[in-house]
Write a structure and sequence with these properties.
Blueprint lengths: L6 H7 L2 H7 L20 H14 L14 H13 L14
Helix pairs in contact: 3-4
C-alpha cells in the first residue's frame, strides 16, 4: 500500500499505533465459495482511503487513484463497517459505549 500512497501521507493518516487498534475490529474478507466477486484488497489501504475521504471532505468518486483502492470499494467497505457498527463509535478502547 505504501508504494502507491506516499509513506508520509499513509503514516500521517493511519499511523501504526492506530492501525494496531483498528485492524482487529475490521471483518476479514471472505471469498465466495463459488468464486467470482471482488478480489481481496489490502485492508489498511482501504481504511486509509476511508480516513482520507472522511477527513478531507473529498467526494468518494474523487478518491485519488494513488490509494490503490477504487472509490466503489472504499465506499462499500465504509458502508459495511458502518452497518456492522464499527464506524460512528466515539468511544475509546476501555471506555463505556
Amino acid at each position: 500500500m505504501s508504494r502507491l500512497v506516499g509513506v508520509h501521507l499513509s503514516q500521517r493518516l493511519v499511523p501504526d499505533e492506530l492501525w494496531e487498534l483498528v485492524e482487529p475490529l475490521l471483518p476479514s474478507f471472505v471469498p465466495r465459495p463459488q468464486g467470482g466477486g471482488t478480489a481481496p484488497v489490502d485492508e489498511r489501504a482501504v481504511f486509509t482511503a476511508v480516513v482520507y475521504v472522511l477527513t478531507s471532505g473529498c467526494a468518494w468518486r474523487h478518491l485519488p487513484e494513488t490509494f490503490g483502492v477504487s472509490p466503489a470499494t472504499a465506499h462499500r467497505r465504509f458502508a459495511a463497517w458502518t452497518e456492522d457498527g464499527l464506524c460512528g463509535r466515539r468511544s475509546t478502547p476501555g471506555s463505556p459505549p
